[in-house]
Amino acid sequence: MSQQQAGRPGSGDTGSQKWDQFGDAYDQPTFSGTPRTYVIASMPRSGSHMLGHLLHGTGQLGSPLEYIHTQHLATWQERLGEPTRAATLQAVMRRRTSPSGWFGVKAHWKQFADVMDDQEVMAVLSPQDWIRITRSDKVAQAVSLVIAQQTKAWISFHQAKGEPVYDADAITKGIRAFQKQESAWDTFFETRGITPHVVVYEEMLEDPARTVADVCARLDVPVPAVLPEPGTTRQATAVNAEWRARYLAESGSR
Ligand SMILES: Nc1ncnc2c1ncn2[C@@H]1O[C@H](COP(=O)(O)OS(=O)(=O)O)[C@@H](OP(=O)(O)O)[C@H]1O
Ligand SMILES: OC[C@H]1O[C@H](O[C@H]2O[C@H](CO)[C@@H](O)[C@H](O)[C@H]2O)[C@H](O)[C@@H](O)[C@@H]1O
């Protein structure tokens, strides 16, 4: 199996081989028109890769990955040999837009904030709609963040490096960072009069078919007859539950 096949959405491969976000597993047929872009406005550890992979699986909504992440855009530029970041994004759009015309991007606030003042990139991106994903349980989200930071396993395709060590201060820092990022997205949408479609992680887990159907309705594409497999799998283990319970117990006693 090639590295790209190993990371292919829906392959069920959650082993040690890295998925390849730059590889052809996420390519669409070459698109020659003007794409319509939607942005998944996300937060770290909010289930954004799961949502992006579910939408990719519809075959209608592009392959929403982190194309505007500064480092990834630089990698794309190097690989595609384009002269500018804007031209690079255009080239990525040609390969990652579905025949429906939708091109999707997933961006955490910081990733978006890093490019939002680049007028050339924004003119190419030109978002037409927004899907916001949030996670209700901020303690669980922060526990997930701290474990990912420590083990470097950001997605189920990554092999964890080492055992995580409980760190209450890091969890608190994560919760505060999420509050700031949520509020930054709130302000961004409010000041521009945008009402994003909202996906809540916990609701997506309860009823992924509904989540996919609602996004398809919002973006006006047919709902797939069969729910796509997300490809990514849940990373949390009993350790996450233990840390969460310990953090809540200790915060209550402070
Ligand atoms: N299929 C499926 N089912 C249930 N949960 C899933 C699934 N795929 C991803 N996830 C969980 O999503 C959390 C990671 O969120 P993100 O993809 O937004 O993370 S990030 O972009 O890398 O920061 C992270 O949450 P935790 O499980 O709490 O760590 C992932 O496990
Ligand atoms: O492979 C999953 C993702 O892994 C990287 O991103 C993650 O790491 C960042 C810190 O280095 C963190 O800020 C971010 O929340 C994580 O998603 C990679 O940069 C992503 O492109 C990739 O999707």
UniProtKB/TrEMBL annotation:
Residues 37-249 form the Sulphotransferase Stf0 domain. Pfam families: Sulphotransf. Pathway: Glycolipid metabolism. Residues 1-30 are annotated as: Disordered. It catalyses: alpha,alpha-trehalose + 3'-phosphoadenylyl sulfate = 2-O-sulfo-alpha,alpha-trehalose + adenosine 3',5'-bisphosphate + H(+). Catalyzes the sulfuryl group transfer from 3'-phosphoadenosine-5'-phosphosulfate (PAPS) to trehalose, leading to trehalose-2-sulfate (T2S). This is Trehalose 2-sulfotransferase.
